[in-house]
Amino acid sequence: MTQTDWVEYQNLFEEVYPDFFPSLLASYPDLSQAEIRYLCLEKLQLTNNEMALVLGVSANTVRVTKHRIRKKLNIESQQEMEKLIQSLEKS
Questions:
Q1: pLDDT averaged over 10-residue windows placed end to end, the chain, 91 residues
Q2: Within 10 A of 48 (CB to CB), how many other CB atoms are there?
Q3: Is 89 exposed, middle or buried (0-12, 13-18, 19+ CB in 10 A)?
Q4: How confident is the model at residue 5, as a pLDDT?
Q5: pTM for the full model?
Q6: Sign of the dihedral through C-alpha 45, 50, 54, 57
Q7: What DSSP designation does 89 have?
Q8: Euclidean distance between CA atoms 64 and 55, whole angstroms
Q9: Which of 89, 83, 84 is nearest to 15 (CA)?
Q10: What's residue 66's pLDDT?
Q11: Given this structure, which CATH class describes domain 3-88?
Q12: DSSP string covering 10-23, please?
């Protein structure tokens, strides 16, 4: 995903989930742009393989990155991560 693609995607994402980014950044202000991208795709409930296709990386890279994000946010399981992401904005 190029920077231009990301900006386009982010604009469309914000139309559907207008409070997601503000809620996410208010709760976790230290997230990098790359981590935010992963969490946006997580919000859409994409599989690791689907995320890998969108981001142009391997499924293993997605798995490792998601693990690092969970560790950074002090979240123990993928299920907890999914609940957190889905709770940031219901739509």
A1: 83 92 92 92 94 94 95 92 84 45
A2: 17
A3: middle
A4: 82
A5: 0.84
A6: positive
A7: -
A8: 14
A9: 89
A10: 94
A11: mainly alpha
A12: HHHHHHH-TTHHHH
